[in-house]
Specification:
Distance between the termini: 50 Å
Number of strands: 2
CATH topology of the largest domain: Cytochrome C Oxidase, Chain A
Strand order of the largest sheet: 1-2
Largest sheet: 2 strands, antiparallel
Radius of gyration: 25 Å
Structural class: mainly alpha
CATH superfamily of the largest domain: Cytochrome c oxidase-like, subunit I domain
Family: Belongs to the heme-copper respiratory oxidase family.
Oligomer: single chain
CATH class of the largest domain: Mainly Alpha
GO molecular function: cytochrome-c oxidase activity; heme binding; oxidoreductase activity
Strand content: under 5%
CATH architecture of the largest domain: Up-down Bundle
GO cellular component, one term: membrane
EC number: 1.9.3.1
Order of helices and strands: HHHHHHHHHHHHHHHHHHHHHEE
Pfam family, one: COX1
Helix content: 55-70%
Length: about 625
């Protein structure tokens, strides 16, 4: 126990957190010292000092954790060979709390952090959902409620981004036959720079919170409590993670594919990850500009958005949504890639319309940049923009529909198992939930209906259906499916199915209930409602459903922790997959592929006699 505690306390994670708080204090003291030299008093929690300390704290975290060490040594001319494997004298688990350059370790770090942040954000939702179960204020005040729902939104989005990072980092190099990502140190930086960003957001809750929602709209952000400054900074810092990881992903996919793996021989998940990375690379800078302008207006007194000083608050919304609508597809495209990846494996037949499905991911990424202003039909933007954005919003249904038709056609006359394993259950559940999100979306993209439903709980239900169906359910499917590859053990199937059968009905109750109260007049982002609306019973059901969803996720986490030691050792290829990562031992060796392989066929030709995908590796399963 003492040795374990020593390893943990000397880890990069703990050093980084200590370094962050020390650096924040130094940054704050620097501004206070400058003011003292000029004979000016510094109030406690002076905003410019808090903001400057927040920026310095991120640098302090990265320096103390050792994320920048190799680059700094390189600057002064020292050799910095990549380190591989567990450090001498340290346990294997220590790799996951220290800076490591192996893409599989980084993928697991992303995944564990995603689940932890998911629990934090989910707990915020449970707290304010209990408040909403009855009309009038029970045990939260308005400021506490506003902070909780605002933090819930941004923390859950951070969790989903971390989950995307987990899947992309762990799977893409394995799927394309690479030994690692193109830039291992940049890959580690992408993960570690996100941690102090999350800490800043959580610190914002402790210094007054904020009431702007996760969108941080000006001019609300200009009048919100101090916590909004740390929220905006954390949001801004996290953009560095998105940009760096997207560059790494695109370069890896472009330059490190195995021999014979042309673009249209890549696993379909890689197409989804590539499309998502294109969005991240090209749109994140836009929200970075909006956040920079908000921070500068708040802290430095510049004027961009405040109408009292000649600013334009609609400008913030254009900049914000030009990023934030496409970023929905950053979450969804990898999730839809998981569905398309797993269905052929369990149906034992080729993925229907592989090329159309691959190109539809790029189509969604392209059209996603043309629809942002449907969030602004009620904002006061130019009326002439409404109709073009309504039609462009409808256009998104075309590439999305391609995926739905492919899934149905792949299932049609397939050989789905009579007793579906947990990954397949979550894939099928995700299709049903994402369908709810899909059919409720056009109602918000059409001007007349959006004017009625905008800022109602209908949007809350629609958005949750889109996120759960497009990412959360596929993410859980991926965790169960690749768990044997990651851990070398099978999970407990009965607990996996319990997780699914608790979560799916509970989610339907929650999402449909949210849309129902929205139709009856319930506004989103409000702490109370009129009992005369007759929606109290529905709110109770929504709250109970949210609690059930939370318990189901805890069951999954327990299942994974317990199964890593107690369950049987997994076969090399328990799913009979053709994908390259399933042709090598589990867990995956340090350098992935000891024997290079060549791609000679199509990735999803299940059921075709004599068909093969790769050679010069372990034999692929025969067509059945």
């Amino acid at each position: 126990m003492f040795r374990t505690l020593k390893v943990l306390l000397t880890s990069a994670l703990v050093k980084g957190l200590v370094g962050q708080f020390v650096a924040w204090a130094l940054g704050y003291a620097f501004i206070a010292g400058l003011r003292a030299l000029r004979g000016m008093p510094t109030p406690w929690l002076y905003e410019p000092a808090v903001a400057f300390g927040g920026i310095i704290s991120v640098i302090g975290f990265l320096l103390a954790a050792g994320v920048l060490t190799d680059w700094l040594k390189w600057v002064v001319g020292k050799r910095t060979p990549l380190r591989h494997g567990t450090p001498e004298g340290k346990p294997e688990w220590s790799r996951y709390v220290n800076v490591d350059y192996n893409h599989k370790v980084i993928g697991i770090q992303y995944g564990i952090t995603s689940l932890l942040v998911l629990l934090i954000g989910g707990s915020f939702a449970i707290i304010f959902r209990i408040e909403l179960a009855q009309p009038s204020m029970q045990w939260l005040n308005n400021d506490q409620f506003n902070t909780l729902f605002s933090a819930h939104g941004i923390v859950m989005i951070a969790s989903i981004l971390l989950g995307v990072g987990a899947m992309v980092n762990y799977l893409v190099p394995l799927m394309i036959g690479a030994s690692d990502m193109a830039f291992p140190r940049l890959n580690a930086f992408s993960y570690w720079v996100g941690l102090p960003a999350v800490v800043l957001i959580l610190m914002g809750m402790a210094v007054g919170g904020w009431d702007t929602g996760w969108v941080g709209y000006a001019t609300l952000s200009l009048r919100a409590p101090l916590g909004v400054v740390l929220f905006l900074l954390g949001f801004w810092i996290n953009g560095f993670s998105s940009i760096a990881s997207s560059i790494n992903m695109l370069v890896t996919t472009a330059t490190m594919r195995a021999k014979g793996m042309t673009l249209f021989r890549m696993p379909i998940f890689v197409w989804g990850a590539a499309a998502a990375s294109i969005i991240q690379l090209t749109s994140t800078q836009t929200v970075g500009v909006a956040l920079t302008m908000s921070i500068a207006e708040r802290v430095l007194g510049l004027n961009f958005f405040d109408p009292a000083g000649g600013g334009n608050p609609i400008l913030y919304q254009h900049l914000f949504w030009f990023y934030s609508h496409p970023v929905v597809y950053v979450f969804v495209l990898p999730g839809l890639g998981v569905i398309s990846e797993l269905l052929p494996v369990f149906a034992r037949k080729p993925l229907f319309g592989y090329r159309w499905v691959a190109l539809s991911s790029m189509g969604i990424a392209l059209v996603g940049f043309l629809v942002w202003a449907h969030h602004m039909f009620t904002s006061g933007m130019a009326d002439a923009l409404r109709v073009p954005f309504m039609f462009s919003t409808m256009l998104v249904a075309v590439p999305t529909g391609v995926k739905f038709f492919s899934w149905v056609a792949t299932i049609w006359e397939g050989k789905l198992p009579k007793n579906p394993p947990t990954p397949l259950l979550f894939v099928l559940g995700s299709i049903s939930v994402f369908l709810i999100g899909g059919v409720t979306g056009p109602i918000l993209g059409t001007i007349p209906t959006d004017l009625h439903l905008h800022d109602s709980y209908w949007i809350v239900g629609h958005f949750h259906a889109t996120m759960f169906g497009g990412f959360i359910f596929p993410f859980f499917a991926a965790l169960y499916y690749w768990y044997p590859k990651i851990s070398g053990h099978m999970y407990k199937e009965s607990l996996g199915k319990l997780h699914f059968w608790l979560m799916l009905p509970a989610f339907w109750v929650m999402s449909i209930g949210q849309m129902s109260v929205g139709l009856l007049g319930m506004r989103r982002r409000v702490a109370d409602y009129d009992p005369a609306l007759g929606i109290t019973t529905t709110h109770v059901l929504i709250t109970l459903a949210a609690l059930v969803i939370g318990w189901s996720v805890l069951i999954m986490i327990y299942n994974f922790i317990a199964s890593a030691r107690m369950e049987r050792v997994a076969e090399t290829n328990p799913w009979r997959s053709r994908s390259p990562e399933w042709q090598i031992p589990s867990p995956v060796p340090e350098f992935n592929y000891d024997v290079p392989f060549e791609v000679v066929g199509d990735p999803y030709d299940y059921g075709l006699v004599g068909s093969s995908y790769i050679r010069d590796a372990l034999p692929a399963p025969s067509g059945d």
